[in-house]
Amino acid sequence: MPMLDEGTDYAARAAWMNRLYADAPAAEVIRATLAAFPGRVAVVSSFGADSAVLLDLVAEVDPATPVLMVETGMLFAETLTYQRDLAAHLGLSDVRPLRPEAGALERADPQRALYSTDPDTCCALRKRAPLDAVRAAFPVLINGRKRHQAATRAALPVFAADHAGLSVTPLAAWAVQDLAEHRVGRGLPAHPLVARGFASVGCAPCTTAVAPGEDPRAGRWRGREKTECGLHFGAGGAVRRAG
Ligand code: SF4
């Protein structure tokens, strides 16, 4: 694979990788990313309802790839169990929980109720800050978002520069049917809450089940303008429901 000069900025790196791999199969995107940025790539996974396919593809390419799980302290118990079970099933050997800094939590959210009054700050404290803290080590993050998940994700590129490096989205073009066929074909275990109507699983206080036909992410921050935690959008990124 032709290599890009180390000194080039991440916007240029994203454009370069998109030219080479924007239409490549997801496994090839993952393989090319690990090869292009050795030792500087991690996967971000919530171990939610839709996480198994990306993690399966990563495990097939290299099961020792670091997998970062943002452990907000507000997750469902079922998610923590699923994380252990799925990692063991796939043979992932380097899952790292990222936790918010205890002092910052105590100062900003002593009652653990910030999600109800200021969810953007809650997500910044519990999700973005722990992830930002590791970006110097892992400037290249692979994520599992898909264009079909929400209107706010309809134009997701496979490679994009963000505020701290490069965001890589190998499953951007995958449709619901593609994901289902991969899950069934590979015999991947489902998140336990899927059977209870959760099409997307985040923190317990901010997630509900969805009705048939609803946007899969309609149960996230239901009744609020917020649609994204801001993890992948960085400075200036959209974190509120359009319209
Ligand atoms: S999803 Fe809810 S509980 Fe979790 S960090 Fe964001 S606002 Fe807080």
How does this structure look, described?
This protein is α/β, with parallel strands linked by helices. The chain has one domain: 3-Layer(aba) Sandwich (Rossmann fold), CATH 3.40.50. 34% of the residues lie in helices and 9% in strands. It has 8 helices and 6 strands, in the order H-H-E-H-E-H-E-H-H-H-E-E-E-H. A 6-stranded mixed beta sheet has the order 3-2-1-4-6-5. The longest helix is centred in the middle third of the chain and has 14 residues. The chain binds iron/sulfur cluster. Iron/sulfur cluster (SF4) binds next to helix 7.
Sequence-ordered SSE layout with sheet pairings:
Blueprint: H1 10-21, H2 26-36, E1 41-44, H3 52-61, E2 67-70, H4 77-90, E3 95-98, H5 102-108, H6 114-117, H7 119-132, E4 140-142, E5 159-161, E6 166-168, H8 176-186
Parallel strand pairs: 1-2, 1-4, 2-3, 4-6
Antiparallel strand pairs: 5-6
Helix pairs in contact: 2-3
